[in-house]
Amino acid sequence: MSIRTTDTKEEILRIGKQFIQYYGYNAFSYADIARELKIKNAAVHYHFRGKEDLLMALIENYIQNYQLLAQQLEGSKLKAAGKINKFIERYTGLCDSDSICIIGSIASDYNTLPESVKARISELIEMVLGMVEQTLAEGKKKGELHFEESPRTRALLIMTNLAAGVQLARISGKADYEAIRKALIKQLK
Amino acid sequence: MSIRTTDTKEEILRIGKQFIQYYGYNAFSYADIARELKIKNAAVHYHFRGKEDLLMALIENYIQNYQLLAQQLEGSKLKAAGKINKFIERYTGLCDSDSICIIGSIASDYNTLPESVKARISELIEMVLGMVEQTLAEGKKKGELHFEESPRTRALLIMTNLAAGVQLARISGKADYEAIRKALIKQLK
DNA sequence: GTCTATAGGGGGATAGAC
DNA sequence: GTCTATCCCCCTATAGAC
């Protein structure tokens, strides 16, 4: 019955994620976060010493989140196509809020980030690609999915279609993203 | 015999383009450009009143550049696959310098840009997509290319593979980009 | 845990001399 | 066309009171 009180630290993470997806990492400030949460600059620094620490925490969140998804998919009765759809859905949601995937956003700012962050992002990407790759491989083995390329290559094609698809949608409209999404699903049948 | 002297204005455009592709629009300053060209801050402002004017000039350059490519392709004896390859080559070159396509870079910063710039970027994207779409349509008609989707959708799939492919390569290495590139070419046969 | 106040630096941009 | 000098703003970050 208890609604867990979202503390400030979680709120900062939530807003930070939104800002990265909407404006980009180098285009928002602690002051922006503070204004949004109606607290002061210094309070944000209390929870995350510096902006890089906030970014790192967000990346850790994503890693945990995908680990959770991995467990859910492993224990689910979904067919391969349904599992792939779980990944696609995450991108479809972004479009509706004019936002882009955090990996794509960070990729643009990549050369401005410290090595520690770069390394962790690399791990996140490998993890996500690995999950998609494995799902594709299993689906092919069971005869549920059909594609010519290696599972790794197919995973790369799908994830790049999605990542740049939401970037494109922000500029040219959601219709283009929808065309991509439908084509992806059709291709695997 | 005369080697045209590259004046400062052209040099600024050259460096500005590099910085956008390497660091992102919101992550470099006029001071960075000035340092690179061994001139002062104010000299850059003389050639481009503000940073947005520089960005707009770069977008105009891209539009002209693609118009030139369109003319070249129209008058060439290249088969459809060869024409598509001209687009792919542009992205392959980016990988080697740890850079990403300017459209992808700008897409990340999109919500921080003034409306005038947004509108022009939209036109640039439509132009490039239109060129690829038309090339695909002609190739299919002549029996040189084979794909199931509409030319527009196929163009979207190819361009998003390339745009996010170079973003990915910057983080996970060029091997992934190469896998994408080869798969794209193979898919069309 | 949040505040006020502030340090220190960098950003975009302009005026006016040369 | 480039310079020096400067303005004003916002940024990241910290110290110390509450």
What keyword list fits this structure?
9 helices; elongated; 189 residues; Tetracycline Repressor, domain 2; homodimer; mainly alpha; DNA-binding
Offer a quick outline of the entry:
2 copies of one chain form a homodimer. The first copy, chain A, has 9 helices and no strands.
Q: Assign an overall shape of chain A.
A: elongated
CATH third-level topology of the domain at 56-187 in chain A: Tetracycline Repressor, domain 2
CATH class of the domain at 56-187 in chain A: Mainly Alpha
State the order of secondary-structure elements of chain A, H for helix, E for strand.
HHHHHHHHH
Distance between the termini of chain A: 44 Å
Helical stretch count of chain A?
Answer: 9
Q: Low-confidence parts of chain A lasting 5 or more residues at pLDDT below 50? A: none
The overall average pLDDT of chain A, rounded, is 96
**What is the CA-based Rg of chain A, rounded?**
18 Å
In terms of DSSP E residues, the strand content of chain A is under 5%
**So, the CATH homologous superfamily of the domain at 56-187 in chain A?**
Tetracycline Repressor, domain 2
CATH architecture of the domain at 56-187 in chain A: Orthogonal Bundle
Biggest interface, which chains? Answer: A-B, 46 and 46 residues
Structural class by SSE content of chain A: mainly alpha
Which assembly state applies to the chains in this document? Answer: homodimer
Main sheet overview of chain A: none
Report the count of strand segments of chain A: 0
Residue share in helix of chain A: over 70%
